[in-house]
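Sanity check. The docking grid for pyridoxal-5'-phosphate depends on where the pocket ends up, so I'm generating a full predicted complex first rather than guessing from homology. Inputs follow.
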Amino acid sequence: MKNDQLSLQTKLLHNKHKFDSLTGAVSVPIQHASTYHQPSVDEFGPYEYSRGSNPTRDALDEAIAELEGGCRGFSFGSGMAAISTCFMLLSKGDHVVITDDVYGGTYRVITQVLNRYGIEHTFVDMTNLTEVEKAIRPETKVVYLETPSNPLMKVTDIAAVAKIAKKHGCLTYVDNTFMTPVLQRPLELGADVVLHSATKFIGGHSDVVAGLAVVKDEALAKEIAFLHNAFGAILGVQDAWLILRGLKTLHVRLKQSSEAALAIAQSLLEIPAVEEVYYPGLPSHSGYAIHQAQASGAGAVLSFRLKDRDAVRSFVEHVQIPVFAVSLGAVESILSYPATMSHGSMPPEERAKRGIHDGLLRFSVGLEDPQDIIQDFTQAFAKGSTLDKVK
Ligand SMILES: *Cc1c(COP(=O)(O)O)cnc(C)c1O
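Predicted complex below; grid placement will be based on this.
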């Protein structure tokens, strides 16, 4: 059977690097060498210097390229390194149309770094296609989106945005961190660059910081390869190996966590203290139909809104199972407070404009038994409401 006929679940395990061709080792060897002996003055071997390429990193680059359906993948020292390097395709005077509920770190690069180099931007509600098209100028080179977005889980129609972008000669960048290629493959929907914080679901164990980029066009791949080597924000080999190991269990982890996320989202709907639940797997979610059409699952992240910061404080104090931390996509469930964590770098008025309410919590579902989480949440809410009565 040809590899391209295999399902993605199988491809995670059975690829070119299933075993090492030299030794038969069933784990990709970690090649620490920074430099490589060359056969002669006139002849170069396949490797030269590890900033440019390295066999362990190459294995990861090939794996992610195949999974996303791209021609080439690149691994970086963090998700932000991947995102920032891909923005370096732009030059002074260029313009970016970007989703208004973009990841806080990307917001920071756009508003506090790229602006200093004369790269301009317009934030738009990416779910509103008319607004997207209106924001495009003659200088626009990139349309940048995340779907489902962070932390409000807004769903953008990738194919529709990519079509508008293409019509105006712009590239479409999609941050696919929340979905991974297991659930959503933006290149197949017309996107040009797919970006990942592999720190999250792909790594999956809260033990490595890494970023990935995948493109489908050879010419674009060459430009990114140049920037990858020029900037040098590469991934170290130990970390590349950890990400390769994470990939092997990605499908099974996401399946379990997504099922649990749906059960937890449904249980939150029943809790009076919860004013709103944001999860694209709920039929009541405004982007449900679009998400169903472009992704094969709703993923393992949901958000919910309580009355205010005091209600959040009480809930966080009483809840016992999840880790209370930044980040997401791990084997353990992680509860985050966007207002001070992922979106802490956004001024309060910008947060308010984007609906990142002081009562909003984001929950990344891990591999615990969902019934234990539901019980834990229930007891934490019960304690919170007793406190209300005492007040
Ligand atoms: C975490 C995250 C990033 C940044 O990745 P790092 O690995 O932390 O640099 C980018 N986009 C999204 C959606 C993220 O969740």
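Relevant for the grid: The mean pLDDT is 95.
Also worth noting: The radius of gyration is 22 Å.
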